[in-house]
Specification:
It contains 3 helices and no strands. It starts with a helix and ends in a 42-residue tail after the last helix.
């Protein structure tokens, strides 16, 4: 119970900490605790921060280069590993 209170105090002070940084912070304050125990306790109490991931655009669809047609579109292969172009 004291460990949970110590974890909660650190999380309230530093909201962005994950379980690894929490473990290091606890070890600096004198706790002898393993990161797996800290992770289990934070998951049980749902104390870990959940960051929303932002969508990253990796393709620029509005480039000035020509767009080549899809030559395979509409074709069905007769057998595996057979070239579609004759």
């Amino acid at each position: 119970m004291a460990l949970r209170d110590a974890i909660e105090r650190i999380i309230l002070e530093f909201a962005g900490y994950g379980y690894r940084r929490l473990t290091r912070a606890l070890q600096r304050t004198g706790w002898k605790v393993h990161h797996k125990r800290v992770h289990r306790i934070t998951c049980e109490e749902s104390l870990l921060c959940h960051l929303k991931r932002h969508f990253v655009h990796t393709t620029d669809s509005h480039h000035p280069y020509p767009i080549y047609p899809n030559l395979v579109n509409g074709c069905t292969p007769d057998a595996p590993d057979v070239s579609l172009r004759g």
